[in-house]
């Protein structure tokens, strides 16, 4: 990658793209490009280094976790790990220890907040205690979305991945229904939409003030108000602005803008969903209703879900 392929996205400590690799490829900023004095870079605590995260987007899978992370990474005080790390939820990674985890983080400067996102943490039974053991002051972000939409999005992703490998995958209805015996509530995509169930262990490990819930639907409709609340939760100076986001008619979603550089999430985000029948939709909504109410009571907030 040549130096010329780096496009500066933000004055100061901001996001950097590797334009030669297309949209969606974040690269750590080059130290000299950050405007830090070379001497500063070698001075321990003041230097650019890989730091353990102080904020983690823990889920939910297909809730808008990538959009949230990339939007936050526009903030000059945020350094975000591009790839999902899967440290707390995968034994083979957890066994590698905190040194390995730190190595997965981007370089950050003093005063920057390091963040990662791994939606698999949310439903991992081990993750809450493990995160707390690492840092009881951790700030956790949970982005949620209508559980039925999330479920269909989850199915669509797996269907797409299977097709890409020329492998068959059953229609959604077949996975959702047990013949005429009602919903197959053991189907993983249904289980992953039971937000209250997965939130409970996080609330046992962290005080509620450490968990901020982001409205994934709100982030799609109008990103800035949701992001303002996140800035506040993370203790960041409000820096994201309306001109950091523009609606892209072709994509059908907001895209990101940093200086002259525009960036939409890749084609795996915002895929069309397969249709589902009214009857099935009603069945799902009825099933999720009590779970949703429980979730609302846990987070002290309601959402306009089906
Ligand atoms: P769909 O592809 O089902 O529409 P995650 O990043 O957690 O996998 O979530 C993916 C979802 O993020 C997408 O689901 C999409 O609806 C949502 N999303 C939110 N904001 C988006 C944006 N600005 N661009 C693309 N997708 C966005």
CATH architecture grouping:
3-Layer(aba) Sandwich
What count of domains describes the coordinates? 1
Averaging pLDDT over every residue, what do you get?
88
Q: Order of helices and strands, N to C?
A: EEEEHEHHEEHEHHHHEHHEEEH
CATH superfamily: P-loop containing nucleotide triphosphate hydrolases
CATH topology, which one?
A: Rossmann fold
Q: Can you count the helices? A: 11
Secondary-structure-derived class: alpha/beta
In total, the number of strands is 12
Shape summary: globular
Distance between the termini: 47 Å
How large a portion of the residues is in β-strands, by DSSP E?
15-25%
**The biggest beta sheet, please?**
5 strands, parallel
Q: Numbering strands along the chain, what is their spatial order in the largest sheet?
A: 5-7-4-8-9
Rg, rounded, reads: 20 Å
Report the top-level CATH class. Alpha Beta
Uncertain runs: 1-42
Distinct compounds present: adenosine-3'-5'-diphosphate
Query: What percentage of residues falls in helices of 4 or more residues?
Result: 25-40%
Can you offer a commentary on this structure?
There is one protein chain. With 306 residues, the protein is α/β, with parallel strands linked by helices. It has one domain (2-299): Rossmann fold (3-Layer(aba) Sandwich), CATH 3.40.50. The chain has helices at residues 65-72, 91-94, 97-103, 127-134, 147-164, 172-176, 188-191, 195-205, 216-221, 223-234, 278-299; strands spanning 6-8, 16-18, 49-50, 55-59, 78-80, 107-108, 113-117, 139-144, 211-215, 245-248, 253-258, 261-263. A five-stranded parallel sheet has the order 5-7-4-8-9, with helices on both faces. It has a three-stranded antiparallel sheet with strand order 10-11-12, with no helix packed on it. A hairpin with a 7-residue loop joins strand 1 (6-8) and strand 2 (16-18). It is globular and about 65 Å long. Bound molecules: adenosine-3'-5'-diphosphate (A3P). Adenosine-3'-5'-diphosphate binds at residues 61-67, 119, 153, 156, 219-220, 253-254, 265, 269-271. This is Sulfotransferase.
């Amino acid at each position: 990658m040549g130096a010329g392929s780096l496009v500066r996205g933000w004055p100061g400590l901001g996001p950097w793209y590797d334009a030669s690799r297309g949209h969606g490829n974040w690269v750590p900023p080059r130290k000299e490009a950050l405007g830090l004095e070379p001497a500063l870079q070698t001075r321990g605590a003041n230097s650019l280094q890989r730091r353990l995260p102080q904020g983690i987007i823990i889920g939910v899978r297909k809730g808008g976790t990538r959009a949230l992370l990339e939007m936050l990474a526009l903030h000059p005080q945020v350094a975000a790990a591009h790839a999902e790390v899967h440290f707390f939820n995968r034994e083979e990674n957890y066994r590698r220890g905190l040194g390995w985890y730190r190595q997965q983080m981007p370089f950050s400067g003093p005063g920057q907040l390091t963040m990662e996102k791994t939606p698999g943490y949310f439903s991992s039974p081990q993750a809450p205690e493990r995160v707390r053991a690492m840092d009881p002051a951790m700030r956790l972000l949970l982005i949620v979305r209508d559980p039925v939409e999330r479920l269909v999005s989850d199915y669509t992703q797996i269907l797409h991945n299977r097709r890409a490998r020329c492998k068959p995958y059953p229609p959604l209805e077949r996975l959702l229904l047990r013949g005429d015996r009602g919903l197959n509530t053991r189907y993983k995509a249904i289980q992953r939409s039971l937000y209250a169930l997965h939130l409970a262990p996080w609330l046992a490990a962290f005080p509620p003030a450490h968990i901020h819930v982001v409205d994934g639907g709100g982030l799609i409709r109008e990103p800035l108000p949701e992001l303002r609340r996140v800035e506040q939760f993370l203790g960041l100076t409000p820096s994201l602005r309306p001109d950091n986001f523009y609606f892209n008619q072709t994509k059908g979603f907001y895209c990101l803008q940093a200086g002259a550089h525009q960036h939409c999430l890749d084609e795996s985000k915002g895929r069309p969903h397969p249709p589902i029948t009214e009857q099935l939709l009603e069945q799902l909504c009825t099933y999720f209703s009590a779970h949703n109410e429980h979730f609302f009571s846990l987070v002290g907030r309601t959402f306009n879900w089906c």
